[in-house]
Amino acid sequence: MNEQPSLQEIFGSYMSYKITDNTWVISFMNGSQYMYLLEGDEKALLIDTGFGAGNLREFVERLTSKEIIAVNTHFHPDHSAGNGEFEEVFVSAGWEIDAPSVSTPGMVPFDLSKMPYPDYKKNILKDNDIIELGNRTIRVFDVLPAHCNSSLFFYDEQAGMIFVGDEFEAGQVNLFDNSCNPNAPYDIKERLDNFKANALKIQSLPKLSYIFPNHNGTPIAASYLDDFIKLVDNIYAGTAAIEDKLNHKYIEMDPKAPTLCRVRQDKASIFINKQLMLSVYGK
Ligand SMILES: [Zn+2]
Fold first, then answer.
1. Is residue 237 a contact partner of residue 282, using CB atoms and an 8 Å limit?
2. Distance 173 CA to ligand 1 centre (A)
3. Ligand 1 centroid vs 78 CA: distance in angstroms?
4. Which of 33, 77, 88, 173 has the fewest CB atoms inside 10 Å of its own CB, making it the most exposed?
């Protein structure tokens, strides 16, 4: 018997483990993707809501009995499609630019109008906002557009942990336009400059032990930032290593794949539109 797994099994099979006494990793998509649950004495912060399989809230409520505050690292389908399980969600002001990446037919494998709160309230988080969980303070950083237009970082200074969504990760950072919005602003130099500025900002934090991305391994060493900064510098210097072979099954299926290349620097790499990248290469 060869039974096909259901969509909910594929997109909504979660596994959780603790990385500190009050911090959970919730992994899904066969362990390649993560959400986080940060508990304070009074409240718990859920960082991202997954693909919208409809069974995340129930899973999280088994991990914590505290009031849950749901936030999005950014407004892409694998991070925010499950928002409708919650009455309200905290998002970045840039969410509207990236919203078509969730609402475009085919981007999400579930009918989000069937969620308990399809018209959930969106609360906008601003740079330096504080989320108080009770004896645990999380600072919000509004992020310059690099991976997307709607990223926020969540910084737990006391623990030296920063949650960065898809802006930095160990596999590769997608720096091509992935908004599904023809009117979204996208300037290659601005993206690269922002990407570097975001890395420098994290490096300047008073305390940093680990970086927590949402894909391809967590946590990762802060030294990835050095490589990403060098990567941008080497594009402008015209010395960065460009690879036409993407070596990524999922991205290779994307219609954009033939326009992309991988640029690598030490242990870090990015996917980017090759033609646009060459327009600033060595300049
Ligand atoms: Zn993602």
1. yes
2. 10
3. 5
4. 88
Whether 122 contacts 88, CB under 8 Å: yes
Task: With both helix axes pointing from N to C terminus, report the angle between 224-237 and 188-203 in degrees, rounded to the nearest 10.
Answer: 150
Dihedral (CA of 92, 225, 172, 236) sign: positive
Centroid of ligand 1 to alpha carbon of 149 (angstroms) = 13
C-alpha 26 chain-centroid distance: 14
Burial of 34 (0-12, 13-18, 19+ CB in 10 A): buried
Distance from residue 44's CA to the centre of ligand 1 (Å): 22
| CA pair distance 182, 185, nearest whole angstrom | 8
In the reported structure, the alpha carbon of residue 68 is separated from the centroid of ligand 1 by a whole-number distance in angstroms of: 22
pTM: 0.96
Tokens at 20, concatenated? 């500190």
Can you tell me whether residue 48 is helix, strand or coil?
coil
C-alpha 79 – ligand 1 centre gap (Å): 6
**Average pLDDT per 10 consecutive residues for the chain, totaling 283 residues:** 83 96 96 97 98 97 98 98 98 97 92 96 98 98 98 98 98 95 95 98 96 97 97 97 92 92 97 97 95
Entry field: residues in the chain: 283
